[in-house]
Amino acid sequence: MLTTVLAAVGTLLVVQSHLAGQVDRVDGVFTGLEDRPPRPSSGPAADSMNILVMGTDRRADGLTTGTEADLEGWIPGAGRSDVMMLVHVDGDRAGASVVAFPRDSWVDVPGWGSHKINAAYSYGGPRLAVHTVEELTGLRVDHVAITDWTGYGSIIDAVGGVTVTVPRTVTDTRHDVVWAQGRQTLDGRQALLYVRQRYGLPGGDLDRIRRELAVARNLARGALRELGGPAPWDVYDLLDTVTRNVTVDSGWEVSDMRALLTELRGMTSDDITYLSAPVSGLGREGAESVVYLDRARADTLWEALRTDTVEAWAARHPELTTVGPVL
Question: What is the pLDDT of residue 66?
Answer without folding.
Answer: 44
